Amino acid sequence: MIVDLALLERQFLEYLEVERNVSKLTIRNYNHYLTMLVEFLQKKKGTVPVIADIDKDSIRSFRLYLSRLPGVNGEMKSVTQGYYVIALRSFLKWCVKNDIVCLAPEKLEVPKNKDHSLKFLDTDQMTRLLNQPLLSTNNGLRDKAILELLFSTGLRVSELTSLNRDQIDLKTREFGIIGKGGKQRLVFISKEAAEYLGRYLRSRMDKSKPLFIHHRGKNDITANDEKMRLSVRSVQRLMKHYVRLAKIPIDATPHTMRHSMATDLLRAGADLRSVQELLGHKNIATTQIYTHITDARLREVHEKFHSGNK
Length: 310
Prior knowledge:
two-stranded antiparallel ribbon, single chain, DNA polymerase, domain 1
């Protein structure tokens, strides 16, 4: 039986790609997390690690090592450490499924995240943010369309950057997308987002397939499609730029726009199950992070209609 850890890792990643149709981003991240473990064990042992080297003691040492790694602001956050554990647990489950003797995956616990607050923008903050791009420039018009589309659809940033022009129907203001885990869903565009998206597309002089592209002068028309495509990192940077310009006291990201869209719908009276479908959540338990909004609405309903409050 194959027990070489690095080889098993490669086979696991191939399984995710071929059998599970997992996104390239997830595979890249899992590769990073598991490679870190392999390198840690190899350095600790001084020999090529095997599956049997993953035991409770080695995992404890690895997690201690992770907790002391530098993060963005000091030590690595517990939520980031949790990604490593989730990847390892998924790998061990695959090993069990393939009759490979290993540490039981259920013995691994994901670190608790101390920060459970949900970041979203209120109406005033969202208005200020959406008004920041300068519409007289190519980048400004593009960025306005991006911000409006993020808020309108609740798209993940990776879903947004993967869009092509031919996917978008501005007449029906809807389009289909294959999201996380290969899950298909229908996405709807608001009238406001459709207006600015249309203006942006009409301003384009190139024939590139990507919906959102870099604007780098004369090379736009001849550049390769994928080189032209705006990256996830670029969208994150432009979002950070406009958040700073709008003087919003929240470290808002493209994912904050997703939270804000869900919050906006629930405040207006949408039910949790519908929001689940619009966001593409596989399990409604994931959507229930927004129950703080529905709880507030229930209180309003109780105050308004219960006879004991009259």
